[in-house]
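hey m, so remember when u said the tokens were messed up on ur end? i reran from scratch. heres the input so u can diff it against urs
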Amino acid sequence: MHLVNTACFLDFDHTLFNTDELFHVDLRNSFLGFGIDIDLWERSYNAVWKTGYTLEKHVEEIFRQSGSQLPRQDMQQILHDSFSDLRRYIFPDVIPFLEDAKKRSIRLYLLSFGNPEWQSYKVLGSRLDAYFDEIYFIPKEGGKAGLIQGHTHGIEQIVLIDNDPAELDLLKDAIPEAQTYCINRVPDEMLVPNDKPSRLKFLEARRYVDRSWRHQHIACRTLNGILSL
């Protein structure tokens, strides 16, 4: 790949960051340790998601729905003590990829879909923000293509990496010359999990695996080799 004047646009959740392990496994188990039942966890999550998810809102909703029976301060404390440093949820190939890109003077842009407050919490907690020239939190699905178009002037090579083929299709519509990579982080043995603990791993990432593509994208399982000369 010719790397002069290259810009690389990367998705965050399920591409760089194992969001399912953080949220559906570790956070869930930490809160269930306070005696929260599964139904309350899921009801409170669904209620908060509609208004723009944050962990703080989730704690407040759990506290409210429990009739103030659960220890709000203890739940808030566990967020501070156990989930302020999120570097352990970065996929292992990410840092080498980003460091290599910086050495080659490739411009790096992070495009993170979702509630900006929640996305910012994960990005800053992962410490990945230091690698990117610019970071965008995009609250509306399908909003990445228009944003990228504003950053392509004078760029010879545009690389787009995402786990959602629908987003990549829109990006290819807008920028046909872009090189698009559809990354699948779900291990083969987790595609059809046979027990509930395994089902929670890659719970959301699994939903993108079988989505159809309108355009041809390069399928990959890791970031290794994407920027190889």
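this time it looks ok to me. The beta strands are 6-11, 107-113, 134-138, 157-162, 179-183, 218-220. if urs says something different then somethings off w ur setup not the seq
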